[in-house]
Amino acid sequence: MVKIKGSFPWRIGATSFVIPAGIEENVRYLAGRVDDIQLLFFESPGHCRLPQQIDVNLLQGLAQEHDLSYTVHLPSDIQPGSSEEGLRQAAVDEIVRLMAGLAPLQPLCYDLHLALQPGLARDPWLGNIDDFLGRLKKDLGRERALVAIENINYPFNEVRPLVREHGFALCADIGHGLFYGEEPDRLFADIPRAAHIHYHGIRDGRDHQALGPEQQACSNRLGQVLHAAGFTGVVTLEVYRSAELQASLKHIEESWLHYQQQKR
After folding, report:
1. Is residue 46 over pLDDT 90?
2. By Cβ atoms counted within 10 A, which residue in 10, 81, 115, 232 is the most buried?
3. Alpha-carbon torsion 108, 113, 55, 5, what sign?
4. Of all helices (H) and strands (E), which one includes residue 219?
5. Dihedrals φ, ψ of 219, to 5°?
């Protein structure tokens, strides 16, 4: 596999599921190849019949041995936009509990989806999100700056002001933005304020695919914007198979090293 660890001013990341194994096996597999690993918790431990058990001490040791950092994908099955106050508070409780358990790993960022609530109009949903973010801010205090709200299929132009108001960070998912039809200029404008960036290809109507020729123009521009912004955070290649990660790493290496050579 291509190794571009330490090649850029920012950290290159991969997800903790690129081989069909648990988090620890994936971290061992990736530790010498990338700078950061995004620990995936799509299901909240409180809702999962078989919650993932991880050895925090082992992951700490691998991080120290390989100059590795971690980011975290917070659960996607919580309901921060629910009209039920109890479900919004339960979402807060799940996040606070998971962050406390992972704190020894000193994650650089915790990414959070604010999923749309089926059957709920936009204005009530935004009001519920406002309430949820206020509750999460109160429970996390200054730690809320580590939680980055990620753009997915909701009206992110209306969410950004709430993110700023409550003091949370942004997670700029370039792949999601392109997939859901957001203007590229708006996506790139988020980068100077973003705590974390996700990038992945789009092919045959599906996102989270390997980066390839279809993304060449976007990749070239993204490299320019990252350099111009002085970005030093994490860019995670959000794919879920080893072959797709290999292709994406090769694509990034060729795209961004070419740009660096042009700069010289």
Report:
1. no
2. 81
3. negative
4. helix 216-229
5. -65, -45
pLDDT for 187: 87
Phi, psi of 160 (to 5 degrees): -50, -45
Residue 191 to residues 23, 50, 194, 219, Cα–Cα distance (Å): 28, 36, 5, 14
pLDDT tens digits for 178-204? 999 888 888 899 999 999 999 999 999
Q: Which two tokens stand for residue 46?
A: 């409180």
pTM of the model: 0.93
Q: Which residue has the tokens 């973010």?
A: 133
Q: Output the DSSP codes for 131-156.
A: HHHHHHHHHHGGGGGGEEEEPSSS-H
Q: What is the DSSP letter of 166?
A: H
Q: By the 8 A CB rule, do 92 and 100 touch?
A: no
The runs of H, that is alpha helices, within 40-150 are 56-66, 85-102, 122-140
Q: Read off the amino acid at residue 54.
A: I
Task: Name, in order, each residue with C-beta under 8 angstroms of 45's C-beta and a sequence gap of 6 or more.
Answer: 51, 52, 75, 94, 97, 98
Quick: pLDDT tens for 11-31. 999 999 999 999 999 999 999
- pLDDT-based confidence at residue 49 (cuts at 50, 70, 90): very low
For tokens 């980011």, the residue is 71
pLDDT over 70 percentage in the chain: 94
Domains parsed from the chain with CATH numbers: 11-263 (3.20.20.150)
